[in-house]
Automatic annotation (TrEMBL), chains A, B:
PANTHER family: GLUTAMINE AMIDOTRANSFERASE, GLUTAMINE AMIDOTRANSFERASE YAFJ-RELATED. InterPro entries: EgtC-like, GATase_2_dom, Ntn_hydrolases_N. The keyword Transferase applies. GO terms for molecular function: transferase activity. Keywords: Glutamine amidotransferase, Transferase. It comes from the Bacteria. This is Glutamine amidotransferase. Coiled coil: none annotated. The keyword Calcium does not apply. Residues 2-281 form the Glutamine amidotransferase type-2 domain.
Length: 281, 281
């Protein structure tokens, strides 16, 4: 499967540590050789770095690892292709503008019968099920809210209902951000952790790197990281449940439906088995 | 004023040489210290590198200069801010999706009364007159062509008429691309050159760099470069006239209205003088 990485923070924070771990899975400790991308929001603007080449060999990935870009919302993805060829237009994350905001999306999973999804003015450029699902979500959002909603939490809950529909078509783990909020939806593989004072040390699973967050942070920093698999081996990551939706705002998990869900690993396995193993995008 | 750089080629070509010259104008040989950006199309996909920091000091600009990304359509911009603060959301180029294609835009100039332009579903994220004008152009395009037009040349001629309207509001030199075509519109400062066999040597104005294109190309390569100021001092650049529109396709200038226009340097100067000198974005 592909891998997702997201970050939400209350102060501009660099993601070099987590990104370093993720990039190793792009052809080194992981099989995701079919491209990678990362989007950093800075204010209302964003920068996306992407490459259809394996991240473990990418000069651009090397720059991103060594050049700390500080952001309060980040979405990243490394790809193992299933739907759509290995090229730039099929490389996540994808971005569209709605209501004068940039929306960025990355997906892990594989959908069937996604061609039935009716699209409006948002149209995919590439051939992935992921980008088509994103365009469908944006269409639902604009049809429901022609103007920017006041109740942002209600808007994200509406999006979570749309994700419930997509989940019926296969595996749909996703990250979505408008630069202020980071929304997560889980079908089977999504973990999160919130780091805050007192900060400790963390060591990467995929590379022999340890970081002492106490040296990198101030006492008021709150940073949440979301990933399809835990990135560190000495911290307690929360596993999200099937159909679980989460909403992060400036580092804090501010909304979600975890309490309403029963832990259902078997259901999760069943959904996962709908797609060829090892080929989930 | 800011500076624009565009490229259209019949084979994937890197723009390192021209970009190296342009970047020097970002705070070194030129005063454009307020950010820079470059968009490379690869197939239907694109990569944008941008930075609100001066290009002559930018680590990312350094990567782009040394890492040859081959493209058939490129749009680049270095900024000297007038409308809108110095930040990422105000950094050109800007991109939007229409008809399942990514459209990328960069502007040199300054508009007045641009707030009167009525917008549809394309909305600016930042505060520049440039992004607002781009959103207005995209709105005009979608209203006129709800579906992708068959007659692309007619569509670009329609866009040129829209640019005539924008020109009435000030200085509007621009580059626009969908990844296949590169469209240019000139108010006062825009030059172009087409390089083809037999290729010769070229030397940059802004840095002591000479290139022998014969060593870099094959006999069938055709590459056109467009810029607000010539980048080399030993080649014959064509100066575009006020209200001149040009359309490049895979390296060749395939359409334009130059023959219908009188050369009007005084008119150009008059238009230029509408905006404070040295502050054209």
């Amino acid at each position: 499967m592909c891998e997702l990485l997201g970050m939400s923070a209350n102060v501009p924070t660099d993601i070099c540590f987590s990104f370093t771990g993720l990039m190793q899975r792009g052809g080194n400790t992981g099989p995701h050789r079919d491209g990678w991308g990362i989007t950093f929001y800075e204010g209302k603007g964003f920068r996306t770095f992407k490459d259809p080449n394996p991240s473990c060999q990418s000069k651009i990935a090397e720059l991103v690892q060594n050049y700390p870009i500080k952001s309060r919302a980040v979405i990243s993805h490394i790809r193992q292709a299933n739907r759509g060829g290995v090229n730039l237009e099929n490389t996540h994350p994808f971005t569209r503008e709605l209501w004068g905001r940039y929306w960025t999306f990355a997906h892990n999973g594989q959908l069937t019968d996604y061609q039935e999804l009716s699209l409006g003015r948002f149209r995919p450029v590439g051939q992935t099920d992921s980008e088509l699902a994103f365009c469908w979500l944006m269409t639902q959002l604009e049809q429901r809210y022609p103007e920017p909603p006041q109740d942002m939490m209600g808007m994200f809950r509406f999006l979570a209902e749309c994700c419930d529909t997509l989940k019926e078509k296969g595996v749909f783990n996703m990250l979505l951000s408008d630069g202020e909020y980071v929304m997560t939806y889980c079908t089977n593989h999504l973990y999160w952790i919130t780091r805050r004072a007192p900060f400790g040390k963390a060591s990467l699973i995929d590379e022999d790197v340890t970081i002492n967050f106490q040296e990198e942070t101030t006492p008021n920093d709150v940073v949440s990281v979301v990933a399809t698999q835990p990135l560190t081996d000495n911290e307690a990551w929360h596993r999200m449940k099937p159909s679980e939706y989460g909403l992060f705002h400036f580092g804090e998990l501010i909304d979600g439906n975890a309490d309403q869900l029963v832990d259902a690993p078997f259901a999760a396995m069943k959904v996962a088995s709908q797609a060829p193993s090892g080929s989930l995008d």
